[in-house]
């Protein structure tokens, strides 16, 4: 029985190895191969740019002029042309259908262009907000630095302070000098000042 169990385990291991060998190995250093799809693929950015160009054109005066001219020519042709050349009789149902079709495509294209513009505006606002936060932080830092410099300069001797101190010292020295002159006159020297005889 133990031999049969070990043989079963060996067979199971061999089957597992065969399964691993038969499976394709997934490589993480290579991009995945594209799967074929039933629907055609398109670039959403290219489609978005095209919709924005169309929406910009629909919002211009040129488009209004061309559309007005087309409708006027359409109506005049179908009123005054010979009966065999008319393609849309008086209620102008085909014209109404064409204008409805144009409006049904124009509205989603305009909405798509507005959504893309909203996304761009949101990104710009986020960048502006971050820039403002950085500017506020820089301003606060510079304010703190200027305050620290002012506090440091409060303890530094300025030129005017040094000048006033020197003037005070000069006045004090002049007062002392004048005071010594007065004291000399009170006690005049006796005898020859060069001789030390009177001092003895």
Provide the β-strand percentage band: under 5%
How many extended strands? 0
Overall 3D shape: flat
Radius of gyration: 51 Å
Are there runs of 5+ residues with pLDDT below 50, and where?
Answer: none
Class from helix and strand fractions: mainly alpha
Order of helices and strands: HHHHH
Please bin the fraction of helical residues.
over 70%
Q: Overall pLDDT, averaged?
A: 83
For the biggest sheet, the summary is: none
Count of separate DSSP helical elements: 5
End-to-end separation: 141 Å
Characterize the structure shown.
The chain has 5 helices and no strands. The protein has 200 residues and is mainly alpha-helical. The model has no long low-confidence stretch (mean pLDDT 83). It is flat, with a radius of gyration of 51 Å. 73% of the residues lie in helices and 0% in strands.
Write the layout of secondary structure elements.
Layout: H1 2-22, H2 44-58, H3 61-80, H4 93-154, H5 159-186
Helix pairs in contact: 2-4
Please name the defining characteristics of this protein.
200 residues, mainly alpha, 5 helices, flat
What would you say about this model in short?
The protein has 200 residues and is mainly alpha-helical. The protein has five helices and no strands. The chain starts with a helix and ends in a 14-residue tail after the last helix.
